[in-house]
What we know:
The complex is a heterotetramer of chains A (229), B (245), C (226) and D (83).
Chain A: H1 8-25, H2 27-47, H3 52-75, H4 80-85, H5 87-92, H6 98-127, H7 135-160, H8 167-177, H9 179-193, H10 198-228
Helix pairs in contact in A: 1-6, 2-3, 2-6, 3-6, 3-7, 3-9, 6-7, 6-10, 7-8, 7-9, 7-10, 9-10
Chain B: H1 2-8, H2 11-43, H3 54-67, H4 70-84, H5 87-119, H6 127-148, H7 152-184, H8 200-232, H9 237-244
Chain C: E1 5-7, H1 19-22, E2 25-36, E3 39-50, E4 54-59, H2 65-73, E5 80-85, E6 88-89, H3 94-99, E7 101-104, H4 116-125, H5 132-141, H6 157-170, E8 175-179, H7 187-202, E9 206-210, E10 220-225
Parallel strand pairs in C: 4-9, 4-10, 7-8, 8-9
Antiparallel strand pairs in C: 1-10, 2-3, 2-5, 5-6
Helix pairs in contact in C: 4-5, 4-6, 5-6
Amino acid sequence: xxxxxTSTGQAFWATLQRDLLIAYKRKNDMANPFMFFLxxxxxxxxxxxxxxxxxxxxxxxVLWISALLASLLAMDNLYRxxxxxxxLEQLLLSPHPLYFLVLAKNIAHWLVSxxxxxxxxxxxxxxxxxxxxxxxxxxxxxxxxxxVFSLLGSIGVALTVGLGSRGLILAVITLPMSVPVxxxxxxxxxxxxxxxxxxxxxxxxxAMLLASISVAPLASGAALRISVN
Amino acid sequence: xxxxxxxxxxxxxxxxxxxKWLPWLIATMILFLVIGATWALLYVPQDYQQGLTNRIMxxxxxxxxxxxxxxxxxxxxxxxxxxxKMKLADMVVKVAAPLGAWFTALALASGSIWGVDxxxxxxxxxxxxxxxxxxxxxxxxxxxxxxxxxxxxxAARACALLSIVGCINVVVIKYSVDWWNTLHQPGTTFGMxxxxxxxxxxxxPLLIMGIAVALFFTVSLILATRNEILxxxxxxxxxxxxxQE
Amino acid sequence: MTPxxxxxxxxxxxxxxxxxxxxxxxxxxxxxFCERDDRILFEQLNFTVSEGxxxxxxxxxxxxxTTLLHILCGLNDSYQGSIRWYxxxxxxxxxxxYGALLYIGHRVGVNKVLTPLENLRWxxxxxxxxxxxxxYRALAEVGLRGFEESQCFTLSAGQQQRASLARLLISxxxxxxxxxxxxxLDAGGLSLLEGLLxxxxxxxxxxxxxxxxxxxxxxxxxxxxx
Amino acid sequence: MIEAIQFSSFxxxxxxxxxxxxxxxxxxxxxxxxxxxxxxxxxxxxQIIRELKRRNLLNTEFNNxxxxxxSIVDNSDVDGEDQ
Lengths: 229, 245, 226, 83
């Protein structure tokens, strides 16, 4: 009868593995944000101008905004299935701190929806004629910034998971919150191309990432409790 | 202290007390408004740069600075809602959001009207206006979340949480927008911040208008909260007795 | 609006009823009050569940059964009154309480794209370490032999329910809280679950269950809401 | 400290040194904002009280007519004092 309790670390891994497994089994859901990113980013040259110089000017902003929108689109299925099938209740009733379990879900979600976008961003950057010395900066800043989008978005999804039509509310809640990251990310690319040093921007983005890692899962967890209530 | 706190949490107590205070508050508010507006419109000297548009400052500055107090207010009330489950605090969170949106919208409108002549355009992505705009969006998000959630208890807590998160976010947004703005417009001393009132003939009427708008903020918050109390407590004994009178 | 009634029917099957008199009170609630959107679901509700007892909660639709279960588990805290775990407030010993609690809700917590095996592995690992042999054995015992590796959306509702009930075989949780576990089960599943409840109670565990099914267990308490 | 009135005539005051539109539209918006945020809640307050009164009247009539239960308030024990 007496069995070994899992440590919080084991529960964290189990949750991470489970969510990655679900994502693997639902490849469509996984591909959608990625496709969305590609399509949105390629709409800008069509909508604004194919002129390489003008594109180079807006490329950083286009990439960041597309990444933000793709992350927002992907957010919706972070907790919805769990809410509908009751797994969320199991998550909340676990003896382990909810913080780590929510963090595991957020990490899994970012690995599936955020990381592919980051990885493909240099390709889009090339198509948008971003100066080649900015590729690395774009890549690194997106790598630091997109997890923040996921973590912040997670709060919004957790608050709205019980709602029937949540798409727009989620956007209205989440997008303004993402502005600081957007500012830091685009400024980093723009200012370093003007000769500023990168480290300050990385420090700011890193600080934002750390702050949201430490606070956002707590808020998401509280929001999930409210939604299940 | 604790007794006072729990008493304050009682909607009935608040309704009765605020009923007694309201006439006085409204009277003081009108007094300050009349003095402040007359002074601002008639007596304040012309600004050497802006001419008579400096009269707009006496509306814009108090409204804009008070609109910055909504998120802290909602965050404090939201914390009380979450921790002590005080109903009155949730009512404040609920009524403060639309009121804050009105304040922010007026601050934006007066700011852009003021800017028409200084900037030559109705809208400019000025640091202050941009962060006010984002604050307006956040407030609208809270309002729409409230209306979307059917269960009142869940709505109360969800909005309380979002207010706290939003409050932290507003601060971060403010700093990052300022930073963004200074980097994009190096060396502009253009705009409202350069025209600080410098003598007492400028700032005393501003102070009076500031007090007037703060009183208005209090009065309108109390009025809205009182209605919310009546609606939520409509089944309770004391509301029934009140209605019978 | 009427206070909930608690009565213990004189059902006596197998074990000695006096056993429950000496056993410790596991979970008790005093003076519980819950109101939802201006409607009182229950007030002055008292209950105790001791080791070896099964508490059956009955009530018409919308009488607050699920809400009560959520309150007992701490999923819902918009209530007044006190709930104690072995005589102490739950908040002071949350980790022990949640380590000893097994809850299966109306939504059973089975992800549709995962297999029963993967589902079971995750839900169990939130509480305790478990080996694959145990998982397979449990799934076989609830009648899912051969379905371990098929995705849950291909299974029937009853089979999904069984997949969730397999947890009962693995878990060493002392308190089971089950919300309408019988609804989608067939006759075989019914007697299987009843057997599980009986052996859990015999081993000193406690069960709180909402159902209208007539339970045949030794130490049964019934409570009707609404 | 208080300077003289800045305007020599009323029409000059209205003109606001050529900024009539800017200044007066801001003050106009401000006034509308003040009045709206005071009058609307005040009227709403009266409206709620009227509505509650009417509902009570209906309740009493209904109760007197159908059952002998004279209670008006259905949840009289909920006093709103609970936190």
